[in-house]
Write a structure and sequence with these properties.
The strands form two sheets. The chain has a six-stranded parallel sheet, sandwiched between helices. The chain is α/β, with parallel strands linked by helices. The protein starts with 12 loop residues before the first strand and ends in an 18-residue tail after the last strand. Strand 4, helix 6 and strand 5 form a beta-alpha-beta unit. It has two domains: 150 residues, HAD superfamily/HAD-like (Rossmann fold, 3-Layer(aba) Sandwich), CATH 3.40.50.1000; 67 residues, DNA polymerase, domain 1. The chain is built from eight helices and eight strands; from the N terminus they run ββααααβαβαβαβαββ. Bound molecules: 2-phosphoglycolic acid (PGA) and magnesium ion (MG). The site of magnesium ion has 9 residues, from loops. This is Phosphoglycolate phosphatase.
Amino acid sequence: MKPTLRNASQLQAAIIDLDGTLVDTLGDFVEALNRTLAELHLPALGRAQVERMIGKGSENLLLSAMAHLGEPDPAARLPVAWAAYQRHYLHVNGRFSQVFDGALAGLQALRDAGLPLACVTNKPLAFAQPLLHDKGLAGFFSHVFGGDSFERKKPDPLPLLKTCEALGTAPARTLMVGDSQNDGLAARAAGCPVVLVTYGYNHGEPIAEAPHDALVDSLAQLSEWPGLANVQRA
Ligand SMILES: O=C(O)COP(=O)(O)O
Ligand SMILES: [Mg+2]
């Protein structure tokens, strides 16, 4: 059965994506990646190019960047690139990024409805946790899972299914909120209803083409969702 969003009152919990949904982290990615590429004696990439490569985790970003720059064997250089990238990312983390307008209001609306919230990102946990703390968002979440928390990342449904298990909720009653096809595909495969924001990063493709039940221009719109005030915490 296709999940429906008509019934916000039936929700038991919500899972929220991080990059491109809660925090505009493109500046952090660009900075950390270009510092890494410089160390590898490779040229820098522009913001638009980097934006298209974000979404499937850090290793994928590094491999995509090296392939784009014509590296003959990106996988062979990955261990060195990954070590440099971790160092640079942890250093720049949060310095070139900001919470999106409306994100706080959206989180507050979900919390006021009494829904437990989990953050599920493809970002490594060691990057995600300090960022959430830094931006004042950590307190909203009972669970935070990164791209390295489970065997597979979004768009695989595994992270969402494991998170529902941790929350003790049914996937069909656990809302996914994200910004990319990785969130939409993972949610569909897990059986979670899914709201996608229109302002995030989606590999340069129209977000309307990704699986979704609703699109919002701001997370603040979640507060107007009929039924949210009457969530029946079953
Ligand atoms: O790190 C990424 O590639 C994207 O992370 P996200 O799942 O929070 O959008
Ligand atoms: Mg995202």
